[in-house]
Amino acid sequence: MKKLRICIIMALIxxxxxxxxxxxxxxxxxxxxxxxxxxxxxxxxxxxxxITKTTQEFINTTGAxxxxxxxxxxxxxxxxxxxxxxxxDQWHIAGISxxxxxxxxxxxxxxxxxxxxxxxxxxxxxxxxQVLSPDSMMTIELTYAEFLPYxxxxxxxxxxxxxxxxQASALVSQHFDFTLVSARTITAINLQSxxxxxxxxxxxxxxxxxxxxxxxxxxxxxxxxxxxxxxxxLFSLSTRLPDSLVPDNGGKGYFLFVAEPNPADNAKVIKKVxxxxxxxxxxxxxxxxxxxxxxxxxIVNNLNAGDKFNIIDFDxxxxxxxxxxxxxxxxxxxxxxxxxxxxxxxxNTDIAGAFxxxxxxxxSSASDSTANIIIFFTDGQPTAGITTxxxxxxxxxxxxxxxNKKISIFTFGVGGDVNQQLLSQIAQQNSGLAExxxxxxxxxxxxxxxLKIRNPVLLxxxxxxxxxxxxxxxxxxxxxxxxxxxxxxxxxxxSAVTVTATFRGEAFGTSVSYQYPVTxxxxxxxTYFFLPKLWAKRKIDNLYAIYCTLxxxxxxxxxxxxxxTTISVKYGIISPFxxxxxxxxxxxxxxxxxxxxxxxxxxxxxxxxxxxxxxxFTFQAQAEYKGIIRIKIFNLTGRLIKALQSVSNASxxxxxxxxxxxxxxxYAPNGFYYxxxxxxxxxxxxxxxxxx
Length: 692
Known about the structure:
Layout: H1 2-15, E1 23-27, E2 32-33, E3 35-46, E4 49-59, E5 66-73, E6 79-87, E7 90-93, E8 95-97, H2 113-119, E9 123-132, E10 137-147, E11 150-151, E12 154-159, E13 171-181, E14 186-191, E15 198-201, E16 205-215, E17 221-227, E18 233-240, E19 253-260, E20 272-279, H3 287-301, E21 308-314, E22 318-320, E23 326-327, H4 330-341, H5 351-360, H6 362-365, E24 371-378, H7 389-403, E25 408-414, H8 420-428, E26 434-437, H9 442-453, E27 456-466, E28 470-474, E29 481-482, E30 487-493, E31 498-507, E32 510-519, H10 531-547, H11 555-571, E33 579-581, E34 604-611, E35 614-621, E36 627-634, E37 640-648, E38 652-658, E39 671-679, E40 682-690
Parallel strand pairs: 3-13, 20-21, 20-24, 24-25, 25-26
Antiparallel strand pairs: 1-2, 1-5, 3-4, 4-10, 5-9, 6-7, 6-10, 8-33, 11-12, 12-17, 13-16, 14-17, 15-16, 18-19, 19-30, 21-22, 21-23, 27-29, 27-31, 28-30, 31-32, 34-35, 35-38, 36-37, 36-39, 39-40
Helix pairs in contact: 1-9, 3-4, 3-9, 5-7, 7-8, 10-11
């Protein structure tokens, strides 16, 4: 058990996207960047929903005036919420534009190999047009949200702070602050590294803090925390927005349901009939075929007693470990491992032929009471047998109809020469998922994924709600439920009532159902400000998966693209078709027809701090001013939660205290906020972090 737990931790870390400090790119071809002098990462995590604010300071050491393109390796499942930057003591906040981000690079238009490796698969880019003089400073701050990966009670948050690919010199300061609040008991929390961090844990709140000065940024922030396995069932979060903040005509309420089966060692799991299909075409030569053998070896060593399995390998020739699925026994395990070790790269790529052979074998070995699973991976386009996407999809559909069994197909595309639309359609049409990997990620990602589906406990899963007030639930088609995994549903509701959530499925050939009463919030819960954005993210993901199955020039694809763009702009999250652009604050800061705040820090500097539960706002007015000073505090949704004012009788240092109580009479929850101060008709903005 201990060995498996170690494997789970390593899999969580390996499966997490590698992202890190942003890069101020002057010339992407030759590798010229502004020097990063400091990095600060602050994370506010509520029940696995993490909001990260990462701030870097840069200095122009190029010897000439220059402007930059900011590049940030955004996590694959994250949603960018806000980007702002400070240059010459003036803050600017980017709006969201209804157009894809500009990926052209400064200095020749091409990224060098090192930069490409660093920014990863899903980078965020943003042009900062202002020119920075030599030896001048610039600050860039990015805020993004994500729902953290979970497995068997363990949750991972990864922020690799290893900046050595970009910069070998030391940073003046590095800081990492992680605050976790959880309704489920936190049993442990720590950094999985040699970083000397300060940690606290009171059961439902935990913190991890690390600071360093004059050191090289070469240590990753790999944080793992564990949750009590005695608190399972259905866990729910909900919030209901006022009319003024609902971005569209849907329900005012947003919810998140997390369901999890019993992960105990003695919990029953459904037997699998499992096939691994391995591409061994010529393009798989070298490290990729070695990783394929490693992934296959791991899977064969982690099958369950009672499972049946087989291995199909293909190029233009289709080969099979056995002619049908065989029982997982020590003898068959040894034989399979020997077979795997003989696999080498060869010829062309017959995807349809591989699926024909694999699917036909389920006719005699699978049943309605078994979990029937195919994991397939390839690194290339179909070049043998049926080569058209429509032809391959029709062939797979006909093969499954012939065996008359439900088979879940999970596809993995390796490298840049795969047909993503085809692999997405195969998975989508067969209750599976598609993932696309870098050339060096095959073994880690496939083995990590297998651990998730190793132990099925509920098949043919569906959900219903009574009364019928729940709408737009995602995912649309629920996956099978696996031991140690969570089923996550997001959706909307019209009325704040108690609903009964019913999950149905099949286990061991018998229909089963589980019912949970859930009381939906009737007011806005500031702590759950992320729920509308999380719902919008999941809806966009669903629409984009459908878009990828269509011809990009078709009218249907254009309709999906338009809907994705509209949701992205309305909810303030970046999508494949939208981007940060411009230098104005986003519309959520408009109030009663006012224009968005514009910073004028040349007249005053606003600072925030907390002490003994009190928030202190301090600012220095450089010009004599007598009159009203107003402070407005907003949460991350842009909702005004408190307005304060004071009277200034003279120039100099001013201080205003706030007890942290919002206009609704409640204490402001831990997390990030924006505040703005008005002096003589000019606004100055700052960030505020509340941690009690």
